[in-house]
Write a structure and sequence with these properties.
By secondary structure, this protein is α+β, with helices and mostly antiparallel strands. Helices cover about 30% and strands about 25% of the residues. It contains 3 helices and 3 strands. The chain has a 3-stranded antiparallel beta sheet. A hairpin with a 4-residue loop joins strand 1 and strand 2. The two termini are about 15 Å apart.
């Protein structure tokens, strides 16, 4: 099954779109996350993490800053019908 997904990085202001083939949405998210990190690698840090950044990581936030914004099954018509991620998962 093919999934269309969008990842958003608020710090960089980037929206990345991917078409991923996977049997389940959870598997598609993992493959999509690998794709986005391969295309937009993390920049090396020059300083220690702030207390806020440390708390974000403890709270389960992804350290890369990428968030799954939308995911939908690809019906062959393009990305016009992409739904919010929370509506699918």
């Amino acid at each position: 099954m093919k999934w269309l997904m969008e990842f958003y990085n608020e710090r960089r202001g980037i929206l990345a779109r991917y078409g991923i083939e996977a049997p389940l949405p959870a598997a598609a998210v993992l493959l999509g996350r690998k794709a986005v990190l391969a295309e937009y690698p993390s920049t090396p840090r020059r300083s220690r993490l702030s207390l806020f950044e440390q708390a974000e990581r403890v709270g389960g936030q992804d350290a890369s800053g990428w968030v799954l914004y939308r995911i939908v099954k690809d019906n062959g018509r393009g990305s016009a019908s992409i739904a919010p991620a929370e509506a699918i998962i």
